[in-house]
Structures are given as C-alpha cells and as structure tokens.
Design goal:
By secondary structure, the chain is α/β, with parallel strands linked by helices. The chain is 40% helix and 18% strand. It folds into 2 domains: 1-40; 46-256, Rossmann fold, CATH 3.40.50. It contains 10 helices and 8 strands. It is globular.
C-alpha cells in the first residue's frame, strides 16, 4: 500500500513539474512578445515617435467633401480667389480641416485672408472666424490693403479681425479649431517662435479642440522635429499627419487638446 502510494506521489510530482515548466515558458514567451494585449508601435515618422496618437497617424489622400466643393462653387467669390483654388488645394484642405457650420475657428497669421474667407463661408452665419494677423507680418509683406478689401466683402461679417502678436492671449475661449496655414519655420524667421502659436492655441481651444498646422515638410515628407516638439511641449497630442499635398513639400499636422 505504502509503496503504491509512493509511486503515485512521485508521478504527481513529475506531472506538476512538467506543468510548471510549460507555464513558465509560456509566460516568458508572452513577456518577450509583449503579450496579447500589448500595443504595437506603428509611428510613421521619427519626429513623432514618442508622441501618443488617438487616430490613424497618416493621411495620404483626401476625398473632397460635397460641403467643401459647394463652398468653392459659391458665385460671389472673386475670380482672383478662384484662380488660387487649384494650387492651394483648397478643397483638400477644407475637407481635411473638417469644419462644420456653427463652429468657432481661429486662424493664426491669416495673411491677406484667402483661407480666412473660405473658413468664414464654411462656418456659416452661426459660426465665427477669429483671424489674427501680427502687425509686423502685415507690414513686412505689404498686405494691409488686400486684407482690408477682403474684410469689406459681405461674407466677412463672420470674420473678427485681431491685430496682435501671436504671443498675446486670444480674446476668446471654447474654440473648436485653430488653424495655422503659414509655415512655422517662416514664422520663426519673422521673429514669431512656434511655441507662441502653441500657447495661444492651447489657451483658446476647448477640451477636445484641434490645432492644425500646415508647414514645409522634410525631404522624406515627415514633419520637422522642432515643429512637433513646439506643439507637444504645450500639452497637445499629435493625432494625424496629412501628406496629401501634391508638391510633396508640405505636411498638415493635426493636434488635439486633451
């Protein structure tokens, strides 16, 4: 009886050891691969490798929305503006921005207002566009007259003109979208640090609001490290890179305010 029981106990011990060995090797294998629930790193550019993303990281093409095309087709637009639509990829940009009627939008460094007017048309009578132009930029580019003519058009009643530097707080809050169509590198060359734009945008945006910056890309199409860092240092999360520009020399960066 005792001999049989001893043999049975030894067999159970051997089976237990085998089970423990299988469990241990399985755990080690899961640890090496990250486990079934581990997140895979799939960032597409070195400049944003450590930036958390909430949506698909890359947009290579845009299917123009009916709303964007309808805005461009409005009959009261000037011939001069229509001539710019193709080279500026206006339909693609408006579609990518995803502006809806009733939104409150800020455009930093609005220039002579080509995109400002398109955004004003898109937000409709219930929305607003706050167009900020640093006086120094307006003067250095000689666009004051063109900007004034733009503001005199009926559709510009939806535009709130802001003449101030980008490091000044915006006189509005709970903004849905902040758009920067001027290259951040060019702004820096004009004495406007990219971080100033990030700070202004952060303070004006509502939680969940977006900051979209269009700038020159690196040779491989990726955004510049300095641009990404300037935005994320303020707390923004990079969620998309729009590489749909035909010239291959520009990229749209979309950030969100958590």
């Amino acid at each position: 009886m005792s001999s049989a029981c001893g043999t049975s106990d030894v067999g159970q011990v051997i089976l237990m050891q085998r089970w423990l060995w299988i469990a241990l090797t399985s755990a080690l294998a899961c640890g090496c691969s990250g486990g079934a629930g581990a997140q895979r790193v799939s960032w597409v550019t070195p400049s944003s490798a450590n930036v958390p993303r909430d949506t698909s990281p890359l947009t290579r093409s845009v299917v123009d929305s009916k709303d964007a095309l309808a805005v461009l087709a409005q009959r009261d637009r000037t011939t001069e503006d229509r001539a710019l639509d193709g080279s500026r990829q206006a339909a693609d940009v408006l579609t990518y921005l995803g502006i809806e009627p009733g939104m409150n939008v800020v455009e930093l460094a609005a220039g002579s207002g080509y995109f400002a007017e398109l955004i004003a048309r898109t937000v409709g009578p219930d929305g607003r566009l706050f167009a900020e132009n640093p006086p120094a930029l307006v003067a250095s580019h000689g666009i004051e007259e063109a900007w004034m003519r733009r503001l005199q058009r009926p559709v510009s009643a939806r535009i709130v003109r802001l003449d101030q530097e980008l490091d000044k707080p915006l006189p509005t809050h709970a903004i849905d979208l902040v758009y920067v169509s001027d290259d951040l590198g060019d702004l820096a060359a004009e004495g406007v640090p990219p971080g100033d734009a990030a700070t202004s945008a952060w303070n004006a945006l509502r939680s969940g609001g977006r900051l979209v910056v269009v700038e020159r890309a690196q040779a491989d199409g990726a955004p510049r490290v300095e641009s990404v860092q300037a935005m994320t240092a303020s707390g923004f999360r990079l969620v998309n890179e729009g590489r749909f520009f035909h010239d291959g020399q520009h990229v749209a960066l979309t950030f969100t305010k958590p």
